[in-house]
Structure formats: C-alpha cells, structure tokens
Amino acid sequence: MGWTYDPTNIFARILRGEIPNKTVMETPHTLVFHDIRPQAPVHVLVIPKGAYVSLDHFSAEASEAEIADFHRTVAKTCAILGLTGEGFRAIANTGENGHQEVPHYHLHILGGRAMGRMVDPG
Ligand code: AMP
User: Does residue 27 contact residue 18 with C-beta atoms inside 8 Å?
Assistant: First the structure.
C-alpha cells in the first residue's frame, strides 16, 4: 500500500540500542517505554519492534502474532501502571494531519489525571 519506513528514525535507534530508553516492559515483538516529554503523570509509548510506519501500516501488514502481542502488551502495561480501573487515553497520531512526529508506529498511553476532551476544537 506504499508505506516507506525510514530506519534512521529515533524509535528505530532505540530498538537498535543506539540511544537509551526508560523501559516499562518488553516482549519478543513489542517495547514499552516512558515518553521523554510526558504530558500526563503517566505517559508511555507502546511500539512494535517491526518496521512499521503507522497504525494503518501495522494493522495492514504485521503478522497476527505481532498484532496479538502488541495488544496483550497494552493490557499488561495498563495493569502495571495502575490505569486499568480509573482509565486512560490511547492516541495513535498518524501522518501529516495526525501530527505524527516519529515515523515508527507508536501508541501513546496517557493517564493519572482526567484527560479532558478528546479533540482540540481548534
Ligand atoms: P508523535 O507526535 O505521536 O509522533 O509523538 C512522538 C513522541 O515521541 C513525543 O511525545 C515525544 O516526546 C516522544 N519522543 C521523542 N523522542 C523520544 C525519546 N528519545 N524517548 C522517548 N520518547 C521520545
């Protein structure tokens, strides 16, 4: 479908161990780490280890094992971080209109406070 992955992006460098991260948990297919500029008391990023640009790329081309592992890891992360009861927000900024800055698929998980309205009315 025409996705082109840039292997020099910062999350690819984290996955190669070239720059450090504050890991929450890791599986064979998925890594979870703290966002470097947290926007809530809890702000972590869940990323696949595979070379996927975005949510739609991952959803179209990742294996069933990768997709299952990713979502099981989201659930474990929410439990580890104490978000399961009081809730959280998950965000996948995608492409230009979605204001995605890092071109490696990542799911933001934010919580620890009420997160307000879903979308800035602009
Ligand atoms: P997005 O706009 O959805 O692409 O968000 C990219 C996110 O990556 C931002 O929230 C940044 O704070 C975060 N980020 C950028 N570099 C790092 C890094 N080295 N470690 C952890 N988080 C990072």
Answer: no
